[in-house]
Specification:
By secondary structure, the chain is α/β, with parallel strands linked by helices. The strands form 3 sheets. Strands 2-9-8-7-6-3-4-5 form an 8-stranded mixed sheet, with helices on both faces. It has a 4-stranded antiparallel sheet with strand order 10-11-14-13. Strands 1-12 form a two-stranded parallel sheet. α5 links the parallel β3 and β4. α2 packs across α10, α4 crosses α9 and α6 runs parallel beside α7. The chain binds 4'-deoxy-4'-aminopyridoxal-5'-phosphate. 4'-deoxy-4'-aminopyridoxal-5'-phosphate binds next to α4.
Length: about 400
């Protein structure tokens, strides 16, 4: 294991004078906190002996039924027995990886991929093979080629890890046309699909696309989460898995944590039962759409030599820097200029990505986003001048992101 690039960043980026376009924190001021507070109080006062007690390893049954209702919005039909409640979808990623991966086994994942998943895969010594994505998500032909090449080499591919909606960090979604293609390729190669979907309900236009799990019950493990559509602090996510895998997931979860927090589950269950959660998701979508607009508007105004994805939902845009710039080397200078981002290298297992950065638009206000992009543009333009003069950007003087220098920390 090693410190992720995001982890060390938080120490500096959380200072108030820094505009952080780095973290993926939802904007919780958008929630009716007084109502949620009263609800939590009521849960303890009226159901305290359950809420504060150990519970089922698989998760509270009422909540599992409510989760089915949430998933119906993405056309998933399942039974409460198919659902395993986890401590955030991060724990589900850990459990699935623990079940399937022996050191040296292959996980196929998008290029780029969610940094937290890569950390899990690394911890279990999986060998991550990246497959490119484009504007329409994972490229089917590239997946076919990668799986064929791996089969020829006799490599054991345990699963395909994919974030089909509003990808972290790329901001793109897998098109409706590609969904059955990806599933067909995975099925033909005997590869399980791990569908990680925390952002699927946060689309800015139209209806959610059908989940991969809705198109294939046997070949997909689906991961969901309340972190982005409600609140990450309760740490409640879930997995939906084919029967045999689901039983093993429960055993693995019990050995890790005995059971997910009953207090959290009952609070979320009460929220789903008594609050207008669909209305809240709609409000979040509108809030994040406005921030996305602020982000892409500011990028168009200030970064003429960069390119970026324009996400239709979620939290992130993926920016390609002008030729010759290195996002990781540039980060200390950006933080000195009071703006933070995550360098693209965090999202690859193999050191690619230095020409990219992830910018998140979920937490800062539109005004702060515009200010952050203005500051970033200043850093990029002085960096570009150096590249034009000397052919390369200066290194980072030995300052690694894992241990920021004192003037940055
Ligand atoms: N998957 C993806 C793609 C994410 O972006 C995140 C959070 N950043 C997670 C999983 C983990 O979320 P949680 O554990 O809060 O459900």
């Amino acid at each position: 294991m090693r410190a992720s690039e995001i982890r060390a960043l938080f120490a500096v980026a959380s200072r108030p004078e820094v505009v952080s376009l780095a973290g993926g924190m939802p904007y919780l001021e958008g929630l009716p906190l007084d109502v949620i507070g009263e609800m939590a109080q009521r849960v303890i006062a009226t159901r305290g002996t359950t809420a504060l007690q150990y519970g089922s390893g698989q998760g509270d049954e009422t909540l599992r039924e409510q989760i089915l209702e949430v998933m119906r919005l993405e056309r998933i039909e399942a039974h409460p027995d198919d659902v395993v409640v986890t401590t955030g979808s991060q724990q589900a990623l850990d459990l699935v990886t623990r079940l399937f991966i022996n050191p040296g086994d292959v996980v196929v994942a998008e290029a780029p991929s969610y940094v937290g998943a890569l950390g899990v895969f690394r911890a279990y010594q999986a060998d991550v093979v990246h497959v490119p994505l484009d504007q329409d998500g994972l490229v089917p032909e590239a997946l076919e080629d990668a799986l064929t090449a791996l089969a020829r080499e006799g490599r054991r591919v345990k699963f395909l890890y994919t974030v089909p909606n509003f990808h972290n960090p790329a901001g793109v979604s897998l098109s409706a046309a590609r969904r059955p293609q990806i599933l067909e390729i995975a099925r033909r190669h005997g590869v399980l699909v791990l569908e990680d979907n925390p952002y699927g309900l946060l689309g800015f236009e139209g209806e959610p696309l059908p989940a991969l799990r809705s198109l294939d019950e046997d070949g997909v493990i689906y991961l969901g989460s309340f972190s982005k559509t409600f609140a990450p602090g309760y740490r409640v996510g879930w997995a939906v898995a084919p029967h045999a895998i689901r039983e093993k997931l429960v055993l693995a979860s019990e050995s890790a944590i005995l059971c997910p927090s009953n207090a959290s589950q009952l609070a979320i269950s009460a929220y789903l039962a008594t609050c207008d959660w669909r209305g809240q998701i709609k409000a979040f979508r509108e809030l994040y759409r406005e921030r996305r607009d602020a982000m892409v508007g500011a990028l168009a105004e200030h970064l003429p030599r960069a390119t970026w994805t324009v996400p239709d939902g979620g939290f992130y845009t993926w920016v390609r820097l002008p030729e010759g710039l290195d996002a990781k080397a540039m980060l200390p200078r950006a933080v000195t200029a009071r703006v933070a981002y995550v360098p693209g290298t965090a999202f690859y297992a193999d050191g690619q990505g230095s020409d990219h950065m992830r910018l998140s638009f979920c937490f800062p206000t539109p005004e702060r986003i515009r200010e952050g992009v203005r500051r970033l543009a200043g850093v990029i333009s002085s960096e570009s001048e150096l590249v034009d003069l000397f052919g390369v950007a200066p290194g980072d003087g030995g300052t690694s992101i894992e241990s920021p220098s004192p003037d940055l920390a």
